[in-house]
C-alpha cells in the first residue's frame, strides 16, 4: 500500500495492494485509520491493482468511509477491476461510494471539495 499526498493538504491518494483479504485487513485498516487520524480526511482509494477483495476488505473501505465522514471528509474509489466492481455492486456499496474510472477526474474532485 502506498500513500501519496495530493495538492490539498488533507487529501491523499492511497494505492491498495493486489489482495484485500482477511489476513491483510488488520494492517490495511490500521494504516488507513492512521492516515485519516493524522489529517487526511479526503482519500482517493486506488483499486486498479486489487485483483481480489473479500468481505473483510470491503469492511476496511466502509470503516474508512465512516471515519472520514466523522471528520467532514470523503472517500472516492478509483478504477476497481471488473471483479472488484461486481462485488461492490452486489453489496450495493456503489450507492455509498463515488466511483471514478479516471484518475485525474477523481483527484480534481477530491481536491476541490
UniProtKB/TrEMBL annotation:
Gene3D superfamilies the UniProt entry points to: STAS domain
GO molecular function: anti-sigma factor antagonist activity
PROSITE patterns, sorted: STAS
InterPro entries: Anti-sigma_ant, STAS_dom, STAS_dom_sf
Stretches assigned to the STAS domain: 1-110
Family in the record: Belongs to the anti-sigma-factor antagonist family.
Name this polypeptide is given: Anti-sigma factor antagonist
Lineage, uppermost ranks: Bacteria, Pseudomonadati, Pseudomonadota, Gammaproteobacteria, Alteromonadales
Amino acid at each position: 500500500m502506498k500513500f501519496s499526498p495530493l495538492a490539498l493538504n488533507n487529501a491523499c491518494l492511497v494505492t491498495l495492494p493486489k489482495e484485500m483479504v482477511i489476513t491483510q485487513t488488520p494492517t490495511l485498516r490500521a494504516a488507513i485509520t492512521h492516515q485519516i487520524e493524522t489529517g487526511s480526511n479526503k482519500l482517493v482509494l486506488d483499486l486498479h491493482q486489487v485483483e481480489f477483495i473479500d468481505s473483510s476488505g470491503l469492511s476496511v473501505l466502509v470503516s474508512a468511509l465512516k471515519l472520514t465522514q466523522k471528520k467532514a471528509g470523503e472517500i472516492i474509489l478509483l478504477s476497481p477491476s471488473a471483479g472488484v466492481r461486481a462485488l461492490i455492486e452486489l453489496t450495493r456499496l456503489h450507492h455509498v461510494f463515488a466511483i471514478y474510472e479516471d484518475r485525474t477526474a477523481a483527484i480534481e474532485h477530491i481536491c476541490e471539495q
